[in-house]
UniProtKB/TrEMBL annotation:
Catalytic activity: [protein]-peptidylproline (omega=180) = [protein]-peptidylproline (omega=0)
A biological-process GO annotation: mitotic spindle organization
Keywords annotated in UniProt: Acetylation, ATP-binding, Cytoplasm, Isomerase, Magnesium, Metal-binding, Nucleotide-binding, Nucleus, Rotamase
PANTHER family per UniProt: SERINE/THREONINE-PROTEIN PHOSPHATASE 2A REGULATORY SUBUNIT B (PTHR10012), SERINE_THREONINE-PROTEIN PHOSPHATASE 2A ACTIVATOR (PTHR10012:SF0)
The protein, known as: Serine/threonine-protein phosphatase 2A activator
Pfam family, one: PTPA
GO CC terms of this entry: cytoplasm; nucleus; protein phosphatase type 2A complex
Organism (species): Myripristis murdjan
Gene name in the database record: PTPA
Keyword Transport included in the entry's annotation: no
Annotated localization: Cytoplasm; Nucleus
Lineage: Eukaryota, Metazoa, Chordata, Craniata, Vertebrata
Protein purpose: PPIases accelerate the folding of proteins. It catalyzes the cis-trans isomerization of proline imidic peptide bonds in oligopeptides. Acts as a regulatory subunit for serine/threonine-protein phosphatase 2A (PP2A). Modulates PP2A activity or substrate specificity, probably by inducing a conformational change in the catalytic subunit, a proposed direct target of the PPIase. Can reactivate inactive phosphatase PP2A-phosphatase methylesterase complexes (PP2A(i)) in presence of ATP and Mg(2+).
Length: 318
């Protein structure tokens, strides 16, 4: 086996380590137990929660280190953004699900492995094919032209894999959310707007948001112990316009306000309810519980999740 296959710190046999192209493992509702007991689940939720701690009380505009790998990933996202400009929506009878998205997606499908290769250090190239799968899963579905929290989860999985192989490190935490994830969100919003993508498995008015979930978790953590801004303030448009550059949560609210018409309480009932929770810490804990229940424990979301050597379906070692 090739010495270039650099192992994630958690894997003991560097030389013999083989990467694999991830595949689906959860094909029926009873398989969900296998997912919840898997190493992948433990690693995924651990990653989300580590980042949640890392951004606590911090503004998007605060100082943090930006490594060369982070810069390269931002370049990758910039490429996806440029391809949207180069692939304008086509004239078609249906308002939603513009077919030009499929053209855009085909380009990513073709280039994903090379794009991932370009962000990986020389000694980690062997992981490119495995990690590229998560990138392709992270931007929506070309058949249905939809996007939802399962696609968002694939992007978090993509970042988690980059951490596992050592391309991203512990001291990249703030840059992972404030730079990479934030840029990812802006590209996803542009995709959603440009190609009028459908929300995947949306709960409609009962869901948190048509498309995203993680920025609400991490965004609420940013607000923990804020001296003046409380959950009740985020429904005030003046607060949103004044502070959205600093807080991911408010960026999300701003996008909802741009995309939806009518009273906030009607189009975003769950968020309206959340604005009544007294503290950001309570909001944050509640959203983590809700994320597990509404996304990670829902078969329609997890049936699409793919497992390889980095995010493994094997049960957690006791």
């Amino acid at each position: 086996s090739s010495p270039s296959a650099k192992t994630p710190p958690s894997l003991p046999f560097p030389a013999s380590f083989t990467f694999m192209v991830p595949k689906k493992e959860i094909s029926m509702v009873p398989d969900m137990g296998k997912w919840k007991r898997s190493q992948a689940y433990a690693d995924y939720i651990g990653f989300i929660l580590t980042l949640n701690e890392g951004v606590k009380g911090k503004k998007l505009t605060c100082e943090y280190k930006v490594s060369e790998t982070v810069e390269k990933i931002l370049g990758l996202l910039g490429t996806l953004d440029r391809w949207i400009n180069e692939t304008p929506p086509v004239d078609q009878p249906s308002r939603f699900g513009n077919k030009a998205y499929r053209t855009w997606y085909a380009k990513l499908d073709q280039e994903a492995e090379a794009l991932v290769s370009a962000v990986l250090p020389a000694d980690q190239q062997a992981a490119a094919a495995e990690i590229a799968v998560y990138l392709k899963e992270a931007v929506g579905n070309p058949t249905r032209i939809d996007y939802g929290t399962g696609h968002e989860a694939a992007f978090a999985a993509f970042l988690c894999c980059l951490c596992k192989v050592g391309a991203l490190r512990v001291d990249d935490q703030l840059a992972i959310i404030f730079k990479i994830f934030n840029r990812y969100l802006s590209v996803m919003r542009k995709l959603q707007k440009t190609y009028r993508m459908e929300p995947a498995g949306s709960q409609g008015v009962w869901g948190l948001d048509d498309f995203q979930f993680l920025p609400f978790i991490w965004g609420s953590s940013q607000f923990i112990d804020h001296p003046t801004l409380e959950p009740r303030h985020f429904i005030d448009e003046k607060v949103v316009n004044e502070h959205h550059q600093d807080y991911m949560f408010l960026e999300c609210i701003k996008f909802i306000n741009e995309m939806k018409t009518g009273p906030f309480a009607e189009h975003s009932n769950q968020l309206w309810n959340i604005s009544a929770v007294p503290t950001w810490s309570k909001v944050n804990q509640g959203l983590i519980r809700m994320y597990k229940a509404e996304c990670l424990e829902k078969f329609p979301v997890i049936q699409h999740f793919k497992f390889g050597s980095l995010l493994s379906i094997q049960p957690v070692k006791p």
